[in-house]
Amino acid sequence: MRPSTRIKSIQSRIAGSFVMLVLFTALLLIFISYPLSESAVRETAENYTSELINQVNANIETYITGMKDMSLAAMNNPNVREYLVSGGGLEPEELAKLKRKISGYFHSILVSRKDIASIHIFGYNGTFISDRMDTELNPNISLQEQDWYRQAQEHKGQAVISSSHVQPVVKDEYRWVVSLSRELSGSDPDKGIGILLIDLNFKVINDMLSKLDLGNRGYVFVIDKEGRIVYHPQQQLLYSNLKTERLEQVLQDTRGGFVVKEDGGSRIYSIKDTDFGWKIVGVFYENELVDNKRQMQRSFAIAGMLCLGVGVLLSFLLSRNLTRPIKRLQETMAEVEKGNFDIRVPVGHSKEISSLARSFNVMVLKIKELMNQIVVEQEVKRKSELNALQAQINPHFLYNTLDSIIWMAESKKHDEVILMTSALARLFRASLSKGREMIPIATEIEHITSYLNIQQMRYQDKIRFTQSVDPSLYPYVTLKVLLQPLVENAIYHGIKNKQGPGSIVISGELQGDRIMLRVADDGIGMAPDKLSKLLTAPGKERSKTSVGIANVHQRIQLYFGPEYGLSYESEPGAGTTVTVTIPAIRVEELAGRGEKLS
Amino acid sequence: MRSTIRLRYVLLAAVAALVFGVALYQLIGGGRQAPPKITVAVKAMDEIEFWRVLIDGVHTASREFNVEVSVIGPPKEVDVDRQIELIEAAIPEKPDAIVMAAGDYHRLVPVAEKIHQAGIPLVMIDSAVQGSYAETLIATDNFGAGQKAGKELAALLPGNAQVAIVSFVQGASTQIEREQGVRSILEGRAGTEIVGTYFSEGMEERAYEITMKLLQERPDLDGIVGLNEPSTVGAGRAIRELGLTGQVKLVGFDSSIKEVKLLEEGVIQSIIVQKPFNIGYLGVKTALSVLEGDKVPDKVYTDSVVIHKSNMYTEENQKLLFPFVEE
Known about the structure:
Distance between the termini of chain B: 76 Å
CATH class of the largest domain in chain B: Alpha Beta
CATH topology of the largest domain in chain B: Rossmann fold
Helix content of chain B: 40-55%
Largest sheet of chain A: 5 strands, antiparallel
Structural class of chain B: alpha/beta
Low-confidence stretches of chain A: 1-6, 594-598
CATH architecture of the largest domain in chain A: 2-Layer Sandwich
Order of helices and strands of chain B: HEHEHEHEEHEHEHEHEHEHEEH
Shape of chain B: elongated
Number of strands of chain B: 12
Helix content of chain A: 40-55%
CATH architecture of the largest domain in chain B: 3-Layer(aba) Sandwich
Number of domains of chain A: 4
Strand content of chain A: 15-25%
Largest sheet of chain B: 6 strands, parallel
Oligomer: heterodimer
Number of helices of chain A: 17
Strand order of the largest sheet of chain A: 2-1-5-4-3
Shape of chain A: rod-shaped
Strand content of chain B: 15-25%
Number of strands of chain A: 17
Strand order of the largest sheet of chain B: 2-1-3-4-5-11
CATH superfamily of the largest domain in chain B: Response regulator
């Protein structure tokens, strides 16, 4: 197989088209579905982040609400009020008893709450109660300077939640806590009597937040309403300016989040406001999606590759399958080209190919038939031409004519001799016609006229003839030597056997696209049964002239078609008329068809 | 003939699919790499808060930059032999880079040489070794920190003053630099005399004893600089015990609960605090830069902060004084 034919073959074209189709479809699918899945992944990530910070919010609020409830319980505890308000009026022993009672109460609350580090009450009168009886205050720390203390005083009975900070008020203890503080008031609501401090162990929040999973680099941080960091995994880096955080932007944000675009990709911030002023912020690195992206790309690539591989394989097999019957057809055609007409294509399954194969088979059969037909026709033609030739150089006629010439010469009838000899010469010249089969009617008329002239000279008054063919017919063509056998037949079978002289009329006319040439005699005529056998194929018992007539009929039909030929009308005793029907074809027309005439 | 044609087609298809696949794989998977492996060798695992915070910084960086780190180190800082052993065991594992805090300026030289010969990039943190085996050193600017301490003390001293320095181990690079920093300030101060440098061997008790003796011998001493945590605490205890709180000014280094208490009590006036978290973080980050072929400076200094009683509990400083290390 040469490369050029391979590219041009239908199979490779089909295969190529299929491959392109598969490639195109696969790429299109990838291009369409990839961004879709990408945005789906992003959406999932965003949903996940916001769900996560909602969860964080719920957890933190649980802690804070717990502290608030606790602060209310402590505030409304009658012992606390009594201790702080009427502290001065009680006996020291009773006061100590009351303090133990309160401390015990606080302690019982703490036992059930692991998240609460401590509960303290600092009375403005200098007293203090802790959940542990043995607690000592840090002598180097001034309560009044503590942020939570001042905030509680400022907020007049409202609970204040601090940021995360180190609580130094208890001696030897430096715990990271989130503080709830509120001012307690006595019977006069406007006059404070002390500060309640509940410390939430910051470790619980820290642990919760640090365990969150927001991808490798993603993180959650919390700031309070002043923008101070409650929790940030990279707090130290922020303080050293090794990193920056968008604290201002977070504080000002009202839409629940924003996207920060950076060199290395963008960060997605999701912000959740808590009831008490903290903001919980989830930060998700879009680059984190890259891992998912890569994974996705990989699976897309593998799927695409598989599809493509299968597609390519299938297209080759499919194209082979499709073109196989065509190839078989092509091979058969090559056989036919070589001349083998007996071959048949097997009719396949597919509709188009099988109808093609069937048509091809029919065609081969037809060609074979036609070829046989042509062979037979050519044979017949040749035979009939031979017969025509025989008719035109009838030796008997020649002998009789020459005999008549001799006889006339002996009688010294020079004029007649000249007339007859020249007629004979004209006859042969017309019949030769340079060997052509088709001749103008004019030539045929000349031929038959010469023939009749000769016959008349021989038979003298026995025959009269009239030639009345319209000269307008002369430019049309006819087969040569058509009329001679007919006239011969009229003379020998019609007039010769008749008593007295007979006449022959030759006429011709144009009827539409046909030309009718007639030879009419007033001889003895023919019986209908003889008439019917006249034009059929020559048999053994036929007379010589009737062979000539049948031959004329056959020749006309061979050359012009079955609708043309001879037709006889005869009446016994009255005469016979034979009509020759041929198509009206002008000499020029014939020349135009490529056949040449003299 | 027919079967060979078929075979050729199938082969052609297979080759086409393969080429396409490889191209696609290259396109998509080519940029993907396994995370780099970095070994971080510290002086002590969890004896001292300084190292715990530093390791915290290492882990923060490893999460952020997606690095696989393994932290190795002896349980105690004095156990230099154990550190050498651990690092030598880590070299054949061929980490992409090693981040090392040398337990000794001289004894870790052969280790650094081995790392260098193995072709592994070395980043030194906190303290270096002699010679230039490392790509860079990331540490507190000890000379600068010493100067800060000197300035703090200078501001507290009377016109004519006598000052002592309580240092830790003679010959340690950090100690030398800090002392030079302190001296560069105080020696330039008019009427100020540095009576001497005393070595506590890194032990609080020894520092306490030295200071007691010193204060008894020199009742006119105006100020002391403690060059590390045990030295400072030991000196502080002596001052408190002798009732000289506020009278003898004390400026120290590093932080601990003991120092915080002394600061609250007013025994210590100022402490200079390093940022170990940043050292750990930058150590890993810089090692990554080296791996990526970036040029890194020979030395990267991290900050130190001066803390007084008044700014102990600010938002920033409480995180340094009371590091919140995850257990």
